[in-house]
Records
---
Amino acid sequence: MDSKTAPPLSLAWFIWGLGVLFYMMGFFQRMAPAVMTEELMRDFTISATALGNLSGFYFYSYVVMQIPTGLLADMWGPRRLLTLGSLVAGIGILLFALAPQLIWANIGRFLIGGSVAVAFVGCLKVSMNWFTSRYYAMISGMTLLFGVVGAILAGPPLRLFMDHYSWRVIFLWTAVFTFIICASIWFFVRDYPHEKGYRDLQSCNSLHDSQILSKVIRGIYEVLTYRNIDLLFLAPGGIVGCQLTFTGLWGVPFLATHYGLSTSQAAVLTSTSLVAWGIGCPILGWLSDRIGNRKHIYLIGCVLSLMGFSTVFFVPNLPLIMLIGLLLVTGFSSGSVILGFAFAKESAPASLSGTVTGIYNTGMIIGPTIMQPAVGWVLDQKWQGTAMNGIRIYGLDAYHAGFGLMIAWGVLSVIMLLFTRDTHCRQRV
């Protein structure tokens, strides 16, 4: 019998907190271009298409890293994974801040996206090793919540700093902060409590690298044989694509141009939707567990979100109070995508839950990965030649055409959900 004591909660929270700081930085970097569209287009002399690609480079590498991240977490452990991730992220942020040309900014964003992709899984791995199982669900929700906090910091607070400092200076300091996080993780985080003299709460992973890789490949193949998983892989992209493409890039210039708002005011409105999204995720998850239903709550949330976004996009001159209300409703309703993690997990054998999570999360991120540059391309095709201070101004027709792509994918998401089979909150296989 192990005579060592369990690790104190204060130490467990501290170790988890260092990982969460990195996760928050990743969300901050994901959403930052939304309040920097004018500055980026002016500094790099680029069109909406190029700006969409610049923002999208974050997602290109992020998507690619989703499945390998789980494999790396098992092979390396969270300490090395989070340390390397934050180191590469700091280098990417530094490269982005100092970029003399667009290609270097793209490379920087690419490095940032691929490196911060490890943050969420790394935090979950830390929580599994340092906390008892009864804390796991709560800590998973708290991790997501802190991610949303990082996204909010990339809204009005970032815009406020940009009113006084160059975006390059601000990002140089965020690079320094990321390197400090990196050093802190390396010196203070450990994979298991026994490395700090405490009793382990979970058994250590004893699989060899080749065994893990083989298991992952077999798992992916098996997971994709379940119809629900295939449908759920396609479903979240439309809703998350609407949410992150609007709040993460094109919402601020749209609101500023067509509602006469300042960039700071427009950033507050898009952040309002993000806050509602962060609140909606745990509440709708709780409601789903309470009534024993996944499909219908997910479906209703998607429909309400689409209705809200459609109204914001296509009904001109909405009163400000109605606009705020609609953004709150769309954000809260978009939180229903969180149900897909449990829905998908219950649709495949429990032994494949990690693989299922990676596949579903990939489906979520594909939405903004495709939509951010696609909307930018459509805006450029519809541009009427109007510019101000070297920045292209896009008309309402151009935004309608671009945002129409997002709504179309959202409708496809609803159709996919209609063909799923509800698990009623029970493991079906």
---
Amino acid sequence: MTTTWLDTLHGPAVEAFEDDDAAATEGLRRLGAALAFHDRAMNGGLVGGAIETLFFADDLAHVDEAISAFHWLGMTEAAAVVDRARAEYLRFRPTGEEEISDEDARLWDALDDEFYAVADDDRLERAIEARSGEILPA
């Protein structure tokens, strides 16, 4: 089995981001923002697992950090779908308590599927490799 960049850097990156570790490289912290968000999205869906969870935790700033990190990684499609998912969530559930229409439920599912398609592990692996010089300490 080959160890990948994602395997090697996942734990340290998420920890550096969550702890705001000043000793870690800026690149490692940025990667951690993307991966912490990615974990939530892959475990519970982009909209329900990531956006809604962060909404209720009053931590939508993490969504901004994830969007910025995805852009930095060159994953602009992932950044765009996260940005759109946040906007749509705030539109159809501004307090987090509203019932959503069938149309919005389909959109919720479509946004999840779109994220899965543009933020898969292979794309993350290539993005991390491309930025490895800025992620790893000199």
---
Amino acid sequence: MKVILKSIFMFIIVSTTSCDKNDFQPDYSNGQATALMNGENWIGQGRGTENNQGIGFDMYYDVFDNLGQRRERLSFRKVPVAVGIYKLFDTSGQSTDSLAGCSYTTVTSDGDVVEDRYRIDEIGEQSTIKVTNYSNSNRLLSGEFSLKLYIDPDRPKSNPSNPDTILFEMGEFEVKIEE
């Protein structure tokens, strides 16, 4: 009996120490965005797709916790392929307008429950995206962004520690557009 208990104890010890659940590393091979978010360094793992309405590209930049659960998503929608500076609006990726859009969400639970949603501030020139390069051969899109976002007034604030306003400054992005 002592041998069985000892074996079970050793199995539990080996099982719990051999699995480090805090070793998740984001995969930036498809792209990344970096910025100062409210004065702090910020980096998101990128993914780019063609907009399903055929209007430019959509890009998503996710931030994960140490367990690999998504905690933030910065989304750009209908970004034009042409080099230039574009004002960002609070528009859906599903609408057929040609306005480039942006939003930011925090995520909770196991990475699939929206916590707080932020809308882009459309007033002034603080919320823009600048496309500096697009290579058709390798489908790589790059540029810069500057954002001012505010908590969505149509949704009650879920996490009181989240700021009411978010500023992304000196933002840079690069993303491979999936085929």
